[in-house]
Every structure is written in C-alpha cells, then in structure tokens.
Automatic annotation (TrEMBL), chain A:
<dbReference type="GO" id="GO:0016151">
    <property type="term" value="F:nickel cation binding"/>
</dbReference>
<dbReference type="Pfam" id="PF01774">
    <property type="entry name" value="UreD"/>
</dbReference>
<comment type="function">
    <text>Required for maturation of urease via the functional incorporation of the urease nickel metallocenter.</text>
</comment>
<keyword id="KW-0996">Nickel insertion</keyword>
<comment type="similarity">
    <text>Belongs to the UreD family.</text>
</comment>
<dbReference type="GO" id="GO:0005737">
    <property type="term" value="C:cytoplasm"/>
</dbReference>
<comment type="subunit">
    <text>UreD, UreF and UreG form a complex that acts as a GTP-hydrolysis-dependent molecular chaperone, activating the urease apoprotein by helping to assemble the nickel containing metallocenter of UreC. The UreE protein probably delivers the nickel.</text>
</comment>
Automatic annotation (TrEMBL), chain B:
<feature type="region of interest" description="Disordered">
    <location>
        <begin position="89"/>
        <end position="109"/>
    </location>
</feature>
<dbReference type="Pfam" id="PF01730">
    <property type="entry name" value="UreF"/>
</dbReference>
<dbReference type="InterPro" id="IPR002639">
    <property type="entry name" value="UreF"/>
</dbReference>
<keyword id="KW-0996">Nickel insertion</keyword>
<keyword id="KW-0143">Chaperone</keyword>
<dbReference type="InterPro" id="IPR038277">
    <property type="entry name" value="UreF_sf"/>
</dbReference>
<dbReference type="GO" id="GO:0016151">
    <property type="term" value="F:nickel cation binding"/>
</dbReference>
TrEMBL record, chain C:
<feature type="domain" description="CobW/HypB/UreG nucleotide-binding">
    <location>
        <begin position="37"/>
        <end position="207"/>
    </location>
</feature>
<dbReference type="GO" id="GO:0003924">
    <property type="term" value="F:GTPase activity"/>
</dbReference>
<comment type="subunit">
    <text>Homodimer. UreD, UreF and UreG form a complex that acts as a GTP-hydrolysis-dependent molecular chaperone, activating the urease apoprotein by helping to assemble the nickel containing metallocenter of UreC. The UreE protein probably delivers the nickel.</text>
</comment>
<dbReference type="GO" id="GO:0005737">
    <property type="term" value="C:cytoplasm"/>
</dbReference>
<keyword id="KW-0342">GTP-binding</keyword>
<keyword id="KW-0547">Nucleotide-binding</keyword>
<feature type="region of interest" description="Disordered">
    <location>
        <begin position="1"/>
        <end position="34"/>
    </location>
</feature>
C-alpha cells in the first residue's frame, strides 16, 4: 500500500493558526480538533492509524508544513505496530516537515513497536526557517515483551536554513549489537526528542541512562534508553525537564 | 600504495603515536564503573558495539576526508564537512573527545606529513574532528586510500578502549589484545562499506549512532565532576 | 617528533588573505610564549608543596599558571586553591589515562592542550609550572613539553635515591632534595645524598631545602628567575 497524507497550517490575518490543507490517506488519517476548542492560536491535529500498518510492502508518506508564525501540535493516538507483511521489501514510512520563519511544530507520535520479522525503515526530515521551533518525539520499542524484534533503520535529519543540526540513524541490528554496552546496552526501548526551541541548555544534563545535550549548531536532544517503555518515558521526561523551557515542554500544554 | 604510505597508516594506528589517544577510554571507564565490563569477553562485546556505532561513523568520515583531501578540497568544503560530523555527534562529551584527539593528531601529523590539504583543513577549524584529520593526513600526503583511513579510524575506536581496560581492570593484556583482533572480519566490513560512500556529498554520508554509548559518554563527564575519572573520555 | 623545538623545517606559508584565524600550531616568535617548567619526582616527595611555594614567591612578580597531572585530578588543584596561592582559573588539571609518565613524556598532547587553555584564559601568562603525577625514578618530561625540568626527591625516600640514578636524577635541569629537616629523624645521611647527587649529575645543579625552614623556596625561585631571564626558547 502506498499512501501520502498532507497537512499544512498557516497563520491567518487575525494571527490564528488555521489548517489550510488536510489530506488524509489511509492508513494516515488526520483529525483536526475544532478551533473553538483550541482557542485558535494553535492548530491541533490527531494522527490516527486507521488500519493495521505499516505492513511489509507499505510506503507511507506524511508531509507537514507550518507557515510563518503558525503553531501546530500533531499528536499520535495509539502506538504504531510495525509488522511483517505478505510483500517483500519491508515497510517504509517517511515524514517530511517544513517549519517557516517563526513557526512552531510539536510532533508527538506514540511509540513504534517493532515486532518479530518486521522490516521497517523510517525517516524524519525537518527543515526549519529562521526562529522556527520544533520538537519531535520518537520512542522505539524493539519487540514486545519477550519478543525478538525484526530489523529497523530509522533516520532523523534536522536542518535550519540548510545548516545541519542533527543527523542520526539508529540500526539496532542483531541481538549481539543490542546487547553490547558499547551500543544499546540491552535496552529494549530507545527514546529521543530533538528540541529546537529557542533557548538551549547551556551545558549537558544527564542521569541514569538519560541525557539532555546541546547540539553543536543549535538545538538540543533529550534521549533515554530503558528495558521498558514506562521507564523510558519517565527518563525522557526527566531529560526534557532539564531544558530551559522544560516546565513548558514537560506539560504538553495544549 | 607507496612504502611510505603503508608506514603512515601504521604509524597513525600505533598506540605510540603521540596524538593524545592514550587519555581516552571511549566510554570504557564509565562502563567499568557500572560493572558492565569486567572480563575480556565483555570487553570484546563492548568493542563490537562500539565498532558498529562510533567506529563506523569515524570510518565513514575518515574515508570521505581521505578522498576529498586527495581531490584538493578547500576551506569551505571542510567547514561543511565539520558541521556534518558535528550534526552526527549529539553528545558534547563525544564531540570534545573527537576534537581533542583531532587537534593532537594534527599537531603530531603536521610535523610528520605536512600537506596543503592539512593546511586547508586547519584554516577551516583549529580543532578538527579526529576522523577528519586521519583522513586528511593520509589523503593529503598521498599516503593512503579511503579504505586505509577507514580501517585506521575503526581500529583506533577499538584499541583505545582495549588499552584502557587493561589499565583500569588489570585485564590480561593478551586476552584484551585478542578481544580486538577477533573483530578483524567485522572491521574489514566496516572499512569496506565506509570506502563505498566516499563520493557522496557530506550531507548524505551515513550517520550511524549508538544511543547507550552516547549516554555513557555524558555520564563519564558528569561523574568526573562528582568524583574522579582517570580518562578524558 | 623531535623533542627540541628548533626543528629543521619550514612550515608552509598560507597566502590566503581570508584566513583570519591565527595558525593554530604556530606560536608567536621567541619569548612570546610562557616558559614551561616541569616538576617531576616520586609520590610524596613534595612536588605540590614546592609548586605552592613557587606560586607564593613568584606570583607577585610574574603572571603564572599551573598544570597538574595528579592521578586524582583535583587533589593538587584543591591544595593550591586552598593554600590561596593561585586562583582556580589559573590551574588546569590533566586526565592522564592512568599513565602519568606517558602524559608528560611519550604523548604530551593533553598537557599541551592544558597549557593552551591557560594561555587562552590568561594571554599574559609568562610562566607555566607543569607538575607531573607522582611516578618513579625513570619518569622525565619530554623537551617538547618542558623547557626546563626540576626533579624532586626527599630525604624520607631514603638516602640511596640519588645513587640509584635514573633519568630524573641524572638529567633534570635541577635536582631538589626536599625535607632536609627530617634527615636526622629518618636516618638519612645528607652528605652522602649530596655527594651522590653531584657525582651522578656532573655540572648540573642540586638544591637541598626544607619548606618547613624556608617556606618560600628562595633558592629554587632564584633558579626559576634565571630561567625566565634566559627566556623561552623559540619553537
């Protein structure tokens, strides 16, 4: 199955963030919340997985644009289960994001669970304009409890006006690599949240298997690993709270 | 390859090369404090994971730098190259460790293998990343191929940690050495893959990561402030 | 790399006028960088106490900084800070990877970086004292790191130490025999120590001192002043 969904949010003449384009493509169903309930200053859209996906052979593409000065919260509703399918070549999902000058995006999907024999490739590309802000959460669960996960390659690219801020690919590989203290240290859950959010932490903050680090060219990343999703989320939240705007970011205020 | 070329590669990989590598454990010191590496087998597994994240990234950039240095890359290119490697190194502790070794290697390498390519790189940044310097020293002097540079970078990602394990844990040096050499076929594959990407634009080069190792690197710095760590990384 | 800095080649000249950054490895002309004096010697011989004494005596005359290689990095720095002889930002601690002799001799990168950091913070610094971690009698400073070096032994270590020789005792630019006030109590024969030291060292100077009796280390300070007057060698 191939699907391409689109979402575009812009600032109208009153300064409200309005959804200009919204094109769902099953299984990527986009459900906007009525402006009356959000107050209009920001748009809230829920991403609902409307079928069992991604399956092997699926190619899912989501394109998001946040116009100058606009604000969008895109939130996931349920965990995504990456499953093997009947088609060869594994499943692919890509999310392309553009945030224009002064725009804000919060992209907070639920976790992705990599099941046995799944072959999943995921890519997130974010291009930021001047003073644009964004946070994107990624929580990967490598197999359900007791399950040996399939294969995964997930890449994140964040650039601002052409300058690379963050590029990283996670390929947890085989059991040996996952078990290595020099790689994943037997973690089953890997959580990451790049935050290009105005101010950055002046110095790294870290704790037991989590950290919040300033990036070289601006922005920061909160990250955590854990044996289970609850612990990973708790550690990630702790890292996010270390941000200068941590109180605001930890609240998930919208 | 010329005879001097082989020597340059050997000298850069030598633990006696005075480029500052001996004060970096690459996360091993922190791993020993957590008790996750105590025996030679655990060291070998630590190194395996290190090779496939940090080692592979270093190999990719060392290979690409060799290629670009041989092709006469200028200051603007090296600025972009540097930014791309920074973007792939989210942990400030790892960036610092890489740049400290890069500067040390450049300091020593400049005396041994001066080249206009190295001057171009240092004009772009006084503290280049370690992998970049390794590549430029080999490529800029015509003394090595991208694959050589990749192999040296990947090997150095292992040998420093192995040496630290001997010093910190008193491991049997023969066992620690074997833990490195057992990864020979793995290292060859990493170097080969790295050499395959050399023509790519720096933005498109692979970006392998190792989340747990990044966290160990940050924890090392935090613990150094709280108690004492003998190694700089 | 050759140990001496009068290396026999020319660095390539960069003609690019847009290169604004100073060449990172091209120190300014002779005498324009601080003199680097290494202080080495066995554990407990009084290196840090001597460093503190020199800071106290010379600190008023000249801008100085200290690089410490102590195995437990902050220990010596804390001592100097608490002794009130030096501000914390004039002290750099080096992590030696559990190999203090390597860091001052075989691979001096971490120490050179520390000196550079001091210079960046204090461009006017004229003297850097590099204190080694306590090591054995074979540990000496590379000439690439220290322009001159002092080897510190003490009478409590036994009066046989100078006779045992080793590169520290025989080749250091200055040998200091510390804690001579304790000689009687530990049964050390000062005459033997001094004559052995001179026999092993030929013309090279030896100073016997007690920081209890002369807490400002006047003789060693005078030797450092001479070195300063001679200037730092060109690189």
């Amino acid at each position: 199955m191939k699907a391409c969904a689109r979402l575009s949010v812009e600032c109208d003449s009153r300064g409200d963030s309005v959804v200009r384009e919204l094109r769902s493509a099953s299984p990527l169903t986009l459900m906007p919340r009525p402006a009356a309930r959000t107050g209009g200053k920001h748009a809230v859209v829920h991403l609902v997985g409307s079928m069992t996906a991604p399956l092997g052979g699926d190619e899912l593409d989501l394109r998001i644009r946040v116009g100058a000065g606009a604000r969008l919260l895109l939130r996931g509703i349920a965990a995504t289960l990456a499953l093997p399918g009947h088609h060869p070549g594994g499943s692919r999902s890509s999310v392309h994001v553009e945030v224009d000058d002064g725009g804000t995006l919060e992209y907070l999907p639920e976790h992705t669970v990599l099941t046995r024999r799944a072959e999943h490739r995921a890519e997130l590309r974010v291009e930021l304009g001047a003073r644009a802000r964004m946070r994107c959460r990624e929580i990967l669960v490598l197999g359900r409890s007791g399950e040996v996960p399939g294969s995964l390659r997930t890449s994140t690219h964040v650039t601002r006006q052409g300058t690379p801020l963050l590029r990283q690919t996670l390929d947890p590989g085989d059991a040996r690599r996952r078990a290595s203290a020099g790689h994943l240290a037997s973690a089953r859950v890997v959580a990451n949240e790049p935050m290009m959010w105005g101010s950055d932490p002046p110095a790294p903050v870290s704790g037991d298997w989590w950290s919040l680090v300033p990036l070289a060219a601006g922005g920061s990343v909160a990250s955590a690993v854990a044996a289970d999703a609850v612990t990973a989320r708790r550690r990630l939240a702790e890292a996010v709270r270390g941000h200068p705007d941590g109180t605001e970011l930890a609240k998930e205020h919208w | 390859m010329t005879t001097s070329g082989r020597l340059a590669m050997l000298a850069l990989a030598d633990a006696r090369f005075p480029g500052g590598g001996h004060v970096h454990s690459g996360g091993l010191e922190e791993a020993t404090h957590r008790g996750v590496v105590t025996r030679p087998e655990e060291l070998r597994e630590f190194l395996f994971g290190r090779l496939h994240g940090t080692g592979e990234l270093a190999a990719v950039f060392a290979a690409a730098a060799t290629h670009s240095a041989a092709g006469g890359a200028g200051r603007q290119y090296w600025l972009r190259f540097d930014a791309e490697l920074d973007a792939r190194t989210p942990s400030p502790a790892q960036r610092d460790a890489s740049r400290a070794q890069g500067r040390g290697t450049a300091r020593a390498g400049r005396v041994a293998w001066p080249s206009s390519a190295l001057d171009e790189l240092l004009a772009a940044t006084a503290r280049p990343h370690h992998a970049t310097v390794l590549g430029v020293l080999l490529g800029g002097s015509g003394n090595g191929t991208p694959r050589d540079a990749a192999a040296v970078a990947a090997y150095l990602a292992l040998s420093g940690s192995a040496s630290a394990a001997v010093r910190l844990l008193g491991l049997d040096p023969f066992a620690a050495n074997a833990a490195v050499t057992e990864l020979g076929p793995e290292l060859d594959r990493v170097a080969e893959r790295a050499a395959d990407t050399v023509g790519d634009d720096p933005a498109d080069l692979p970006a392998p990561s190792a989340p747990a190792l990044d966290l160990l690197a940050e924890a090392h710095q935090r613990h150094h402030r709280e108690e004492v760590r003998l190694f700089a990384s | 790399m050759r140990a001496e800095h009068d290396h026999g080649h020319n660095h390539p000249v960069n003609f690019d006028p847009t290169v604004a950054e100073p060449d990172p490895f091209e120190p300014a002309s002779a005498g324009d960088r601080p003199l680097r004096i290494g202080l080495g010697g066995p554990v407990g011989s009084g290196k840090t106490a001597l460093t503190a004494a020199l800071c106290r005596t010379l600190g008023a005359e000249i801008e100085l900084g200290v690089v410490t290689n102590d195995i437990y990095t902050t220990e010596d720095a804390d001592f100097l800070i608490k002794a009130g002889v030096l501000d914390a930002d004039r002290i750099e601690a080096v992590q030696t990877g559990a190999c203090p002799h390597t860091a001052i001799r075989d691979d001096i990168t971490a120490n050179l970086d520390a000196v550079e950091r001091l210079q960046q913070r204090h461009p006017g610094v004229r003297l850097v004292l590099v204190e080694s971690g306590g090591d054995n009698l074979t540990a000496v400073f590379s000439r690439g790191l220290a322009d001159a070096q002092v080897f510190v032994v003490d009478v409590a270590g036994g009066d046989k130490v100078p006779r045992k020789g080793g590169p520290g005792v025989t080749t250091a630019d200055l040998l200091v025999i510390n804690k001579i006030d304790l000689a009687e109590r530990v049964g050390a024969d000062m005459e033997v120590m001094l004559s052995d030291a001179h026999r092993m060292r030929g013309e090279l100077p030896v100073i016997a001192q007690s920081l209890t009796d002369t807490p400002r280390a006047p003789e060693v300070a005078a030797w450092v002043r001479q070195r300063l007057a001679a200037g730092a060698p060109a690189r």
